[in-house]
């Protein structure tokens, strides 16, 4: 089994959990306990070989700073959701769309100097204990995981391999393919 995380912005190993992920909108009784930090489920990692038979996927659209509908391709911190517990109903969160944040799945302003902006999301008023928040950045239901992480890695690898860049250490991210300095390009 190969891990498929391929960016230098992968969350620290200490934040990983082996808890089985629940589905994105699964609802349960709201706990009265205080908010806990997000944990990313390693059980949701995808085997590259399994994906060789892969299904094509289209990326989520990230807003461009100039207001145009330019397609931006994010870096992928982790192919699987972050399991977030005990968010406060009505609370406003900023979901990282660029993939560069070190506080995934939330924005830590690492997008500054890029064309990406965070997605502002209001936690629904309906009580829910667990949210699966997208951490591959390709969900079509941001910020909730829609399982796109299961099918998008092959497309991501191919796009980065084909991209003409420029890919240099002088940039934070290539928004044409999601390449970041240190990303290892994979031959398929
Ligand atoms: S750090 Fe990624 S959108 Fe802000
Ligand atoms: Zn590129």
UniProtKB/TrEMBL annotation:
Q: Which GO terms describe its cellular component?
A: mitochondrion
Biased-composition ranges for Low complexity?
1-43
Under the heading InterPro entries, the entry gives: CISD, FeS-contain_CDGSH-typ, MitoNEET_CISD
One GO MF term attached to the UniProt entry: 2 iron, 2 sulfur cluster binding
The protein's UniProt keywords, in alphabetical order, are: 2Fe-2S, Iron, Iron-sulfur, Metal-binding
What cofactors does the UniProt entry give for this protein? [2Fe-2S] cluster
**Is the Glycoprotein keyword given for this protein?**
no
Region of interest (Disordered), ranges: 1-44
Q: Which domain of life is it from?
A: Eukaryota
Name the Gene3D superfamilies for this protein. CDGSH iron-sulfur domain, mitoNEET-type
Domain called Iron-binding zinc finger CDGSH type: residue spans:
83-117, 122-155
Q: Which PANTHER family match?
A: CDGSH IRON SULFUR DOMAIN PROTEIN HOMOLOG (PTHR46491), CDGSH IRON-SULFUR DOMAIN-CONTAINING PROTEIN 3, MITOCHONDRIAL (PTHR46491:SF3)
Protein name as annotated: Iron-binding zinc finger CDGSH type domain-containing protein
């Amino acid at each position: 089994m190969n891990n498929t995380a391929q960016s230098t912005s992968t969350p620290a190993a200490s934040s990983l959990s082996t808890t089985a992920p629940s589905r994105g909108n699964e609802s349960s009784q709201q706990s009265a306990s205080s908010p806990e930090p997000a944990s990313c489920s390693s059980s949701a990692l995808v085997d590259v070989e399994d994906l060789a038979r892969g299904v094509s996927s289209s990326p989520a659209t990230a807003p461009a700073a100039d207001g145009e509908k330019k397609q931006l391709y994010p870096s992928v911190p982790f192919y699987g959701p972050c399991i977030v517990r005990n968010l406060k109903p009505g609370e406003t969160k900023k979901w990282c769309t660029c993939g560069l944040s070190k506080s995934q799945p939330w924005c830590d302003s690492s997008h500054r100097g890029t064309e990406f902006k965070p997605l502002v999301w209001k936690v629904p008023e309906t009580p829910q204990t667990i949210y699966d928040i997208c951490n591959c950045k390709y969900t079509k239901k941001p910020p909730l995981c829609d399982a796109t992480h299961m099918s998008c890695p092959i497309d991501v690898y191919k796009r980065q391999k084909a991209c003409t860049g420029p890919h240099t250490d002088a940039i934070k991210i290539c928004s044409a393919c999601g390449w970041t300095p240190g990303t290892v390009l994979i031959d398929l």
